[in-house]
Structure formats: C-alpha cells, structure tokens
C-alpha cells in the first residue's frame, strides 16, 4: 500500500437572463445598439453555450485530477485495503503493479459481492446477512488479497483527455471515480465525480469566455 504524488467551467444551458438583466446590460454599453432584448438574450445564451463547450474541451484530465492518490498492490491483504478505504473515507481505489501501471480497481462493490449469501448485493442485503449469520460473513475473504477480488481491466483516462471526454466516459460506465494515467499507462492521479462538479461549477469571467 503506497501513495503517489491537487492540482473547473460553468453549467451548460440557459443562463436564466431576464429582460431587465438585458436592458441594464445594454444601458451599460456606450453608444447605440440596434438589437431587441429577445435577440440579445438568444445571442448571449448561444454564445455562452459555445464558450462553455470550448472551455470544456480545453480543461484536461490533468487539470482536474487529484494528485494525492491512494492505491494498493495486487498483494495487499484485504484487511489492509478495507482499513485504508475506511480510514480515508473512499469507496474505491486503483490496484497497480510494481511499475505503477494500473491492473485493476477495487471498490466497496467488490467487497460486498463476495460477502454472505449468493444473489444481488448492496449494503442493506449485507447487513441483513450479518443479522442472520452466526459468524462474520466476511470470513470467506479474510485471507484474500486485492488482486483476488479487484475488477479488471480498470476503466482509466489519459491525462490529456478533455473534461467532456472524462464526463462522458464516467456517465456511460456509471462510475464515481476513474484513475488518470500518463502516456506509459502509469497512475498519476484520480478523478472523482466531485472533481467534475468542481470543474463544472468554477466561476468563469467574461474575460475567460472571450479569451
């Protein structure tokens, strides 16, 4: 178990302009403007969306990722993995080989799926199994290691992927986090949904939008 070496865009869509907003903005511009408030709002919203799309393509995975990444090796005992995840308050982490390349990921789901009775698993079904059992339902995996239960191959992104590409992948795969790799496939960071939200909610000034 080791650690590697922290390192954002506005919401897409209607910005909620009112006519009064437009009138006040138009009054603040020196000179004569031959355009209606309706046309101004449509033009502004379209330009805003285009600017957001441009920015989302320019923000890369390496700009959003958390560099302080917790990971384990294939040989890390599951007890140690569970302690690490619980202590850090994380639901999953990468598994790497000796060269730092990602060989899998291990998550709460990987633990849950191997505990107790067969069938669909979630936290409450495991609790129910615990209440019925006479002993610890985690005993069958007590002696196992990360490599025994990890999900492989891991879903990863390259450091040069754009915000749009990372968000699309995570949404399509239904995952909450994804490791970030360099051009050699080595782990250099991790992106979580929280990192995406921070990137999306960053306040972008007019100067940034038109730069």
Please state the structural category.
alpha/beta
CATH architecture: Roll
Order of helices and strands: EHHHEHEEHHHEHEEHH
- What is the CATH T-level topology? CBS-domain
Number of helices: 10
Portion in strands: 5-15%
The pLDDT mean sits at: 81
Number of domains: 1
Distance between the termini: 44 Å
Q: Gyration radius, to the nearest Å? A: 23 Å
Shape: elongated
Helix content: 40-55%
The named CATH superfamily: CBS-domain
Unreliable segments of 5+ consecutive residues: 2-15
Strand order of the largest sheet: 1-2-3-4
Largest sheet: 4 strands, mixed
Class, according to the CATH hierarchy?
Answer: Alpha Beta
Provide keyphrases for this structure.
211 residues; CBS-domain
Describe this structure in words.
By secondary structure, the protein is an alpha/beta fold. It has a single domain, classed as CBS-domain (Roll). It is 42% helix and 14% strand. It has helices spanning 19-27, 37-58, 61-64, 78-88, 108-112, 123-132, 146-149, 163-173, 193-200, 206-210; strands at residues 2-3, 70-73, 92-96, 102-107, 157-158, 177-181, 187-192. The strands form 2 sheets. The protein has a 4-stranded mixed β-sheet. Strands 5-6-7 form a 3-stranded mixed β-sheet. Strand 5, helix 8 and strand 6 form a beta-alpha-beta unit. The longest helix is centred in the first third of the chain and has 22 residues, at 37-58. Residues 2-15 have low confidence and may be disordered.
